[in-house]
Amino acid sequence: MTNKRNTIVIISTAVVVTLIIAVFAIKKNGKTVAISRIVTPHMGTINQSVSATGTVLPYNRLEIKPQVNGRMESVLAVEGQKVRKGQILGWMSSTERAARIDAARAQGAASIKYWEDAYKPIAVIAPINGTVIVRSIEPGQAVLTTTAILVLSDRLIVKADVDETDIGRVKEGQRVTISLDAYPDVNVSGRVDLIEYESTTVNNVTMYKVNIIPDKVPEVFRSGMTANVNIIEKAKEDILLIPTDAIVSDKGKSYVWIATKDSKEPEKKLIATGISDDQNTEVISGINADTRIAVLAQSGVNLEAKKSTNPFMPQRKKMR
What we know:
By secondary structure, the protein is mainly beta. The chain contains 3 helices and 21 strands. A hairpin with a 3-residue loop joins strand 19 and strand 20 (about 280-285).
């Protein structure tokens, strides 16, 4: 009796499993395509964007160089410090003043004071409001008129490289989201300020520089950091969305499989779609928020495709 009951249980279990597989599968061209899950549309927001990689750089980069050759006596600014136009950033001596003061040291304090009063030091003044991004000199070092003592930046922006195949989708004023490789959790919003007219070639690909101005520059921004940007081409709110992998294509048209309660197998339904992002697609017509959609295990299956052939087997040529 025990063996007989075990046999009945095994047979019953096999029947149930077979029925489940039949419900969650679609027969296509004599082959069974599994259904991975059932989804329903939802209302949401979607952005269609152009992705690019850029670099954090100064909008205006200004090098402060001395007007005469000489020696730095003091530097009053440090990297990261915000300065205002007209602020004294350091003092330097001309070559002649430095030589006379050095010679006076052997003659005593009175001689030093005389030459310090006779030859006044030269002030290094900030020509703009900005932030010190480079301090390349220290007190006591010799400087030339070609030496950049300090480098100022009025503000940091992102210069993004956009492929010429995408540049037509980018317009000045478009909103942008910015993230940094160094700080992936920091997300900054901004806008497209300028699309440069001259192209550059990177790995045989024509690129255009796009200037992106952040709405607010976070403290972690540093010149030279790698930034990832998403330039929002289109944005829609409160629209009907479905997962992109729920859509299958057939001869240039879009379809979904509708999972009905009355039918054992889902039904093929034509839909009209709108914009898409990496995960979701807008549905304009064909279904509503209550529709139950069967997502095939093989996304993007061509419903009318012929059986695939082995590419490694020899193929017969068609007779003309």
